[in-house]
Structure formats: structure tokens, C-alpha cells
Amino acid sequence: MFVLKLFPEITIKTRPVRKRFIRQLRKNIKSIIREIDAGVEVKGEWDALEVEPANADQLVLDRMATKLCCIPGIAVVLEVTRYPLPDMGGMFELVNEVCREQLKGKTFAVRCKRSGRHSFRSVDVEQYVGRGLNQHTEAAGVKLVDPEVTVALEIRDDSFYIVNQRYEGLGGFPLGCQDSVLSLISGGFDSSVSSYLTIKRGLQTHYCFFNLGGRAHELAVKELALYLWMKYHSSHRVKFISVPFEGVVEEILTKVKNSQMGVILKRMMLRAAEKVAGELNLLALATGESIAQVSSQTLPNLAIIDSVTDAMVLRPLATSNKQEIIDTARIIGTEDFSKNIPEYCAVISNKPTTHARKDRIEREESRFDFAVLDSAIEQANYQLITRVAEDLGQDSAEIKIVYDVDASATIIDIRHPTELESLPLAANVSALAKETLNIPFYQLKTSFDELDREKIFLLYCDKGMMSRLHAAHLLDEGFSNVAVLDLSNKS
């Protein structure tokens, strides 16, 4: 089972707010974890939550731990074994049985956290159990600073827990406790990290994409948004909105002075985003802009850009430098495909202004045909994030879904490398196929053309969404030797 420690900022909220946050967090956990274990129970009302799996298989527990670490609101995930609270001697016996082999030849320290009313202190448990382990095991001795092994114990009322594994959680606030936001996502480092930060802060984050680079660009951004949703906020339904902006860009290129293009493009995006947000009843927009990172992001320019909208504009990365942003992208798993997506809007001006003047911007915009912007907004495509493959030009019925592995087929596991490491494809499934390849989804488009067209390839991912997205794209590219492997009903 798991004990989940809350993000510290939740614990300092007023009692009604704290209870509301915890209720929402329990709901979010159930929504996500029940896809792995339908019988899971989530309990807890105040300072921590307990997740009790119905299936104790270690592979199931590993999958649960991975998911729990990505749910906003959880600071620490402890995989534990729970016992009825014994006396001191019983505590030592239990710990000795569990940890004896692990301590051989190593220094150790015992750490105990306790909540509830007891006749002993946490330090009493640490000293008693530590002395016992030092005397009755082959440990190298007690070392209170930087020990090789930390024996972690938890006592909560009448229960005694031995911690088997400790994982760092995402932190932040539970989704559903705050309002929703529309994230302007381009697929680059900045907008992906900005979206992640709004999710982490408990904001239900919808995605708005301004298509400047055609179909391939849209596919790349869709897979990024889908990845973020599946990993960090799949407890809630969100939308992906694609706004065709090629006509707007053409209008700017032909009618606006070069130096003013970048600022005016951003103003057009905010105007459109405000309309989209209004359709979804959202009060705020979020962008990946960072002060002075590029010419359009100086304070004077940002002020001019923001003046076209009454919506609140959130900039989670406002004071972050580029390397910090890239480092975060690496941690959250978006670096590998963000670095392959060109920043179309960043190259629109050769000599961009860094100190835009409102009168000059408005004079340039007076030559712009706003009917083009209105048309782009009217043509915006609204989709649930789970249906982003639908408008790739392929009827989803044409995608072949395979539920059993044929011996002649080759499985392509397209999951992110971090998922492959923590949750490898079951050996019994891999053994059924002719071979299994690991090609992350962000490399699939460039790698698939090099594969043998005579072979049958089965695309696999955790939920089947990313594999369907790429199967649709590959079918559209003329590849008929591809299908989706669905193992959702396999144990």
C-alpha cells in the first residue's frame, strides 16, 4: 500500500479549504489509479492519504507509484507495509525481519515519524529499534549523518508502517481546486514548461495552438499536449483548440512593417485566445514568455501586447532563464520533442522593435484586415484532448486495433524512455512477437521510413492514445503495415 504526504501549502490552509482540497485529491487519485486497479481504495481526511491496492502484484504497485508521483497535490509517495501497532519489542522484530538482509555490511540510521497519541516519542522508537538492529544484525553500525541505509518508519494512531520505497511527488495543488486556464502552446520548451507549471498549481489547463507551420507542426504539438495530459492531469477532461493562423501571418507579412511584426503577431494571438477562452468560460490565459528572452518579450512590448485583452495573462516563466526552462523540460519529459519543433513566431522579424510604441503599433494594425483574424477564430477546431487524432485526415475506423500479438509481428513500444525504464513491457508479451523495438513517439516519424515495409508493426503505448495518433499519421503517409496494439484488458 501507499501513504501519500500532502504538499505543505495544503496543510496551512484553513480547515474548510484544506478539507475541500483533500476531497478533490482523493477523487483525482481514484480517477487515475482505477485504470490500473479497479478495486483500489483511497482513504484519509486530514494530514495524509492511504492508497490500498486490491492487487498486490509488484508490477501493479510500480505502475501505481509512477502515476502517483505525477498527480498534483502529492509531495511524497511512500510504498509501505502496514501492521497493527505493536509494543517496542514487536516493532524491532518486524523491522529486523524486513531489513536484516538489506543492512548487511552497511551503516544505517532509523528515522520514525509519528502522529496520534502515544506513550512514547518518535526518538524512543528510533533508539530502541536502532540498538536492536545494531546488536542483532550484520550491519556496519549506526551512522546518523549520511548513512548508507535509512530505515524509515511511520506510526499513525494504531498502525505501524515500514517504508519500503520513498518517491518524490509532484507537489502543487490538486486539480479541480482552482479555476481553469487556456495555455497558448507552440510545442517549444517555454510553452510546454509553462503549461506544466499551471497544471502543477492546480489549474485545469486547456491548450490553444496557433498553427503557423502546417500539418506536421500541428501533429508535433498535439503529441506534446497529449503527453502532458496523460502524465500530469488525466484526472480531468481538457480541450485542445487549433486555430489556423497561416492567413493571419500572411496578412502581417504583406501589410505590417518588419520591425513591428513580432509584437503585432502576439497581439493577434491574444485577441484570438481571448475569444477561445470566452467560448470555454475561462478567465485567464497562460503563455511561456520570459522577460527579455526574445525581442517581443521586453517589458514595454509585453505591456503593448497585453493591452489588447481584458483577460488575465499568466506568465509562469516570467523570471526564468532559458537553461532553467530547458532543465525543467528535461525533468518533465518534454525536452526530446520540444527541441525538434521550430519556433515559427520567433523568426518573423529581421530587426524587431524592443520598445514598441502604442501609436505606431495601432497605425500598423490599421492596415490589417481583421476579417482574416475573425475567419481564423471561426475556423478554430475544438477537440477533447483524447480525440486529437481525429482531424489528421484519417477516419479512425481505418486504424486497425490488435488485441493479441501475432508471432510474425514486430512491436514498437513508442512510450517515453522514462516510462520504458520504470514500466517495461511485460516479458510474456514481448516473447509473443517476432521482435520488440523501442522508438519513442517523438522519433517515430523520422525512424519509421527506415523500417522494412514488408513487416507488420504494432504500435504500443500505455493508454493507446499516442499509438492511435501516430498510426493515423503513418496511414496518411502511405504506410499500410501499421496497427495499434491494445493490451488494456491484459493483466
Give a short summary of the structure.
With 491 residues, the protein is α/β, with parallel strands linked by helices.
What would you note in describing this structure?
The chain is an alpha/beta fold. The protein has three domains: 2-168, VC0802-like (2-Layer Sandwich), CATH 3.30.2130; 180-387, Rossmann fold (3-Layer(aba) Sandwich), CATH 3.40.50; 396-485, Oxidized Rhodanese, domain 1 (3-Layer(aba) Sandwich), CATH 3.40.250.10. 40% of the residues lie in helices and 20% in strands. The chain has an eight-stranded mixed β-sheet with strand order 2-3-1-4-8-7-5-6. Strand 12, helix 10 (299-306) and strand 13 form a beta-alpha-beta unit. Helix 4 packs across helix 5 (122-136). Mean pLDDT is 87; it is low at 392-396.
How are the elements arranged and paired?
Layout: E1 2-6, H1 8-11, H2 15-33, E2 41-43, E3 48-52, H3 58-68, E4 74-84, H4 88-103, E5 107-115, H5 122-136, E6 141-142, E7 149-156, E8 159-168, E9 180-184, H6 189-200, E10 204-211, H7 214-232, E11 239-244, H8 246-255, H9 261-279, E12 284-286, H10 299-306, E13 312-314, H11 322-332, H12 335-338, H13 358-365, H14 370-378, E14 381-384, E15 401-402, E16 410-413, H15 417-422, H16 427-430, E17 435-438, H17 441-447, E18 457-460, H18 465-476, E19 482-485
Parallel strand pairs: 5-6, 5-7, 9-10, 9-12, 10-11, 12-13, 15-19, 16-17, 16-18, 18-19
Antiparallel strand pairs: 1-3, 1-4, 2-3, 4-8, 7-8, 11-14
Helix pairs in contact: 4-5, 6-7, 6-11, 7-18, 8-9, 9-10, 9-14
